[in-house]
Amino acid sequence: GGGTPVAESTVAGSPCGAGGRSDPANRDAKRPVARCDKGLPGPRPLPQTVKLRFATAVKAEFIAPLLLAQSKGEFQKENLDVEIVVLPFADSVPQVLSGNLDGTTGSLEAGFFNAVNKDIDLTWVAGNFYPPDAADPAKAQTGLWARKSLFTDPAKPDLAQLKGKKLASNVGFTSSTTYPMAEAFKSNGISVNDVEIVKIPSADQVTALKNGAADMAWLVDPYWLPIANDSNYVLVATQPAGEPLGGFFFGPALVGEKRAAGVAFVRALVRTINTYLAGDYQSDPAAVQAIAETTGATAEAIKGTPSLVFDWEIRAGTTQREQDWFLQLGRVDYKTAIAESELVDRSFYTDAVEGR
Amino acid sequence: MPSQTLTRAERQRILRTPGRHELAPERWMRLLRLRDLALGAGVPLLLAVLWQVACDAGWIDRRLYPSPLDIIRTAGDMWQRDTLWPDLLASLRRTGLGYVIGSAVGALFGVAMGLWRPIRAALDPLLNALYTVPKLALLPVFLTVFGFGELPVVALIAVTVFFFIWISTMSAMVAVPEGYREAGVTLNLSTWQMFRHVMLPAALPEIFVGLRIAAGVSVLILVGVEFVLGGNGLGHVIEQGRTTLVLGQTYVGIVVVALVGLVFSVVVQLIGRLLMPWSRAGSVMRQL
Amino acid sequence: MPSQTLTRAERQRILRTPGRHELAPERWMRLLRLRDLALGAGVPLLLAVLWQVACDAGWIDRRLYPSPLDIIRTAGDMWQRDTLWPDLLASLRRTGLGYVIGSAVGALFGVAMGLWRPIRAALDPLLNALYTVPKLALLPVFLTVFGFGELPVVALIAVTVFFFIWISTMSAMVAVPEGYREAGVTLNLSTWQMFRHVMLPAALPEIFVGLRIAAGVSVLILVGVEFVLGGNGLGHVIEQGRTTLVLGQTYVGIVVVALVGLVFSVVVQLIGRLLMPWSRAGSVMRQL
Amino acid sequence: MTAAILAEGVRRDFGAVSGLGPLDLTIDDGEFVCVVGPSGCGKSTFLRIVAGILRPTAGEVTIATRGDGKVPLSMVFQDHGIYPWKTVEQNVRFALEVNGFGRAEARQRTDHWLGQLGLAEFRKAYPSTLSGGMRQRVGIARAFALDPEILLMDEPFAALDAQLRQVLQEELLGLWQRDRRTVVFVTHSLEEAILLGDRVVVMSARPGRVVRSTEVPFERPRAAAVRDSAAFADLKAQLWDCLRHEVDAYLATVSGGTDA
Amino acid sequence: MTAAILAEGVRRDFGAVSGLGPLDLTIDDGEFVCVVGPSGCGKSTFLRIVAGILRPTAGEVTIATRGDGKVPLSMVFQDHGIYPWKTVEQNVRFALEVNGFGRAEARQRTDHWLGQLGLAEFRKAYPSTLSGGMRQRVGIARAFALDPEILLMDEPFAALDAQLRQVLQEELLGLWQRDRRTVVFVTHSLEEAILLGDRVVVMSARPGRVVRSTEVPFERPRAAAVRDSAAFADLKAQLWDCLRHEVDAYLATVSGGTDA
Ligand SMILES: Nc1ncnc2c1ncn2[C@@H]1O[C@H](COP(=O)(O)OP(=O)(O)OP(=O)(O)O)[C@@H](O)[C@H]1O
Ligand SMILES: Nc1ncnc2c1ncn2[C@@H]1O[C@H](COP(=O)(O)OP(=O)(O)OP(=O)(O)O)[C@@H](O)[C@H]1O
Ligand SMILES: [Mg+2]
Ligand SMILES: [Mg+2]
């Protein structure tokens, strides 16, 4: 597991303190991530129990704040009764709209922007995580892995040499990883349109790399593990540093008439992160055990990938950067980017950490 | 005699007269065919109109479920942008190839297992178990064996179709009335002749039920496979529309898939009728 | 007379003698049944052994494809940790419920459409088109209609099973020889009696082929649905093993699914035999 | 006397083939009519029209029943018409039960007729395990047990041995005489026709019309000895001639083609 | 003379039912044997054993053919045994073609026999559009066209009208006399048996054994007038008695049970 500097100092008297906030524009890799003390911000139970239903595509480590908040009773402390259903992001959107779901979790894929563009009320209210070593390709992690033999100098891989090669992907350039990939390609002078997409599910992408069906693949946790120490493959691009590319999305009710419940929900998430998931949480057997129980994975499997940096904050410009690429690639069905103000609402987590 | 009269009054009369079909068979058949056509086209049309009305009235949220007119419009757009045609072609090629290969191998196994009990005994449990193995979960195996590109997609379709045709053919073979076989024995038919002239035609109607079922299955599995594999095809169109929430595209894909399935099924049934001219001979009641 | 002798020498002799089956029918049947069992169990076992050998010899990459022994070991582990049983139960409940509902409704439609041509004409094109609509793509609709929980899963299975039983039943009804119906007419059977005593038993063998096919389909679709929906069940076990790279778990799931499918199919066939005692009466050849 | 069956200009075409020519025939209430005619002339077709299985292409059949029996009409089929999924017993009993006979009566009648037809031992057997003649007997048992007002019989005794045939002929006559049922009996045996019928109707070759309708002059009950009488031989010879004429015509027409 | 068919102690059980008792029968090469017996006594079963469709449960049948015909054995089935998916013509021609007759000969024979049997007009018809008698004629045409060394016929003329029956009896005799084929002919008509056979074999009730085997003393060719001779009547009466005894025994045994 790895670790990242954490904002210290809690202002006495405040429910969390200055450490609970950071400048949204700051995307420095070494930037301290927002944190409060263990157990903070303290619960402020709602007058009446509110039932909420949230969707997640999978029960995996990266969604641990939601899972642990439920299993550790943090929602209960807020007088929230949260039900978690397993449903892919795209399928959950109609249910949010029809009120079957109060919110959903996911990443900034093209579908989110298309949905908002179609007046589907969906608001990004909290971030989720980023890998601890993001932006450091020297460390094996989630990112774009490529066959070493593609490059003349594997030590300093020139992405331009990926031109015309095959990229394994389960959705194509509509997911949130489009942005980091596109940036990496652009900085090497080629476009994502210069590679050929081979549609293959995430779980099978390593197989595809091995049998030649693909030359490269964006491997998410834990699929990069089998080739982490394989000298035939090299990591050429990673997720950007300090910038969650997804998180929690609220439907119209939570943003509107049930706003108090929305704040309580985010407060419980933030408290869960501070209490169980801060720093190198994988060194705490109890936390690993809790994650294992809620995700159904084994403790070893969880420890196989480094501790994630859970970050509830939303960086300024993330939605713009994602949209830029989707617009450029024609993956969204509108022409001018939607303003961040229509997509993001940071007031939930600021209210949570500031005790409002 | 009063009692006699009473008995007469009690008599029931039953009339056997020509029906409309007998009086003007050709006209009646034409009418029937027209009625069938009207009903067959009318019911879906009616549903579409109801759907449209529901959308227009706002009972259905148009953002999530596009109206029939929206779908037609989107389809027109996609057609003009040439984004539907290549996917349709790709899907047709895959499903056609997979269907033909899967049916051929399935029929082969079905025949062999239907005719020889030891083969049946040996393979039935194994194939029965393999039947329900989720083929998509074995994707790595398929990718390893068939590499990439069209081959694993076609193979997945073929493998799925295989099981349906296998079961239908085997059941049909086993169900052939023994009388037919017995007559064949006295005609000194060789195994091949017995198969060609007796077992196959006797089993054909049931095999064609299997072929019809498998036609639908091949389209279904095609879409399922294209959801995850192969970056084009109707399944891809649907899936892409879904994940990017361009739902018009998704519904266009669904409608096209449904039409493909309909045409496929009709074609299989037509071939069946051509191959089995005897199946309608002598039928009198069934026409009504 | 030499020519006479020659003719005699030319004579062919054909013998009709009791076969092994006729000489000791019970013993022979027992032997046959034993042979069937041995073959049926032997072939899968042989394949498993070959697989094991290939794994042990390193021809197959054990990290990607666990050996049979690995699978058994993992299954034992999972069993002891109580992580397999609840998923199996959940899956059985869903698939059982969906199968029964889907079959019942499918049979209903099949019967109605098989017996009445106007209904058939009206619904056949529509259902044929709906048949190939990828049900998973309509997940949002199902969720909106059925809410969350077990209901949409069961509904998806039921809807899929429906189409298979519908086609089989309808085809079977249409294929019932007219002679049976004609006899029923002279017996003054009511519509219900005609259905109950004539059409249904005549169609039953084919309907059971459909039921057997649908048994497998219900398991397949169950797994497919559980891949994306519902946080438990065998499909979830398989998918989770895949996404967390615990491949042993995936293969345990696959094997359990295969066994469930096998048992399901055998049960359907046994019920069929019980319901159709006449189907084996009078059969002499078929036993061999 | 009133007509039980009145056929007026009845025709039946099958596509281009006309199976039954314009046929006019009146069958009186309580009459026993035997129908003979060349193979394929439309005898079965006529019975099927009367039974309501087929509709005529033209013409009309009027059937009048007294209404004193539970079952107006029943038929013995040339190809047995029994159900392979019912045992011998079920085949008979089910027909009775659906026609309003009570359980007990249905059982009793079934037992009686299976016994009469020598099928008691095979009551639990499925038809596929029976010989051809036994299957035909099941069909006969069913029709007899139903005790219909009008009994249509299509070559019912063709597959039975001479003795059983005689036994059943007597059963049939007994049944007919007791309640004066109307019987239409198709047979290929002129002897049988003369022995059983009040009247013998000879049909022409396809499409079948009535070419001759002869009252049988023998008193009932007819002893088997009637066969040896000159009148019997004479009638038989007449019918034979009439029939031969039809068959010859038939063979002359149809056997043409490629063969000289 | 040598035996064409030699049955020694042939038995056939169907589960608990014994369908054919120990049967011993020798049929000479070129002999025309008619078999009569009560319905269900095992006549068809015996033919099926000889034809190789069924195996005996015990005993043995030895069949010796001269080898001078293309087809050693062929059979006319009681239930026709023709294929509904083949037209009348195909049903016959295909049987010829698979048995080594050349295309031209197969066509010629087919045409000939369809003509003889009055089916020329229906050559393109499927069996489901034929009358019962017509279907049976297709089966007969097929067997005759094959010109087998041993011809097994199971009630072949039962569904045919008296005239056609006579025509076909003559055809059959012609065929038999020309090449001295061996014929085993099951019938329910004693007259037919006496008229056609060299020998009449009477079988007992189920399980069938041979209870009587009588040479027919009439010279060939036999005129129809033979029927009127005293010897004919006498022989028929004898066979009738013998058969009645069997049928009575049969009815007595099986009709028991619930019926008095
Ligand atoms: N497949 C079978 N299963 C069981 N029993 C059978 C089977 N085939 C025939 N039998 C029995 O064997 C006996 C003889 O049958 P078979 O058909 O040989 O009679 P048959 O002499 O030809 O009678 P018929 O004159 O009525 O045609 C019958 O009693 C029948 O019940
Ligand atoms: N379903 C049908 N389709 C076409 N033609 C038919 C059909 N049924 C009967 N026919 C024709 O009608 C004619 C009369 O048939 P039918 O069965 O009434 O003859 P039949 O007098 O009963 O003959 P048999 O004595 O041989 O039983 C036949 O020539 C036959 O070809
Ligand atoms: Mg007839
Ligand atoms: Mg018989």
TrEMBL record, chains B, C:
Keywords: Cell membrane, Membrane, Transmembrane, Transmembrane helix, Transport
GO biological process, one term: transmembrane transport
A cellular-component GO term for this protein: plasma membrane
Protein name per UniProt: ABC transporter permease
Family: Belongs to the binding-protein-dependent transport system permease family.
Membrane-topology descriptor: Multi-pass membrane protein
Keyword Transport (UniProt): yes
Localization annotation: Cell membrane
Domain named ABC transmembrane type-1: residues: 88-272
Main localization of the protein described in the UniProt heading: membrane
Bilayer-spanning residue ranges: 37-60, 96-116, 128-148, 154-177, 198-225, 251-276
Pfam families recorded: BPD_transp_1
CDD domains on file: TM_PBP2
Automatic annotation (TrEMBL), chains D, E:
Chain ranges of the ABC transporter domain: 5-230
Pfam families recorded: ABC_tran
Presence of the UniProt keyword Cell membrane in the record: no
Metal-binding listed as a keyword: no
Sorted UniProt keywords: ATP-binding, Nucleotide-binding, Transport
Gene3D superfamilies the record matches: P-loop containing nucleotide triphosphate hydrolases (3.40.50.300)
Molecular function in Gene Ontology: ATP binding; ATP hydrolysis activity
SUPFAM superfamilies for the chain: P-loop containing nucleoside triphosphate hydrolases
PANTHER family the UniProt entry points to: ALIPHATIC SULFONATES IMPORT ATP-BINDING PROTEIN SSUB, TAURINE IMPORT ATP-BINDING PROTEIN-RELATED
Protein name: Nitrate ABC transporter ATP-binding protein
Lineage, top ranks: Bacteria, Bacillati, Actinomycetota, Actinomycetes, Micromonosporales
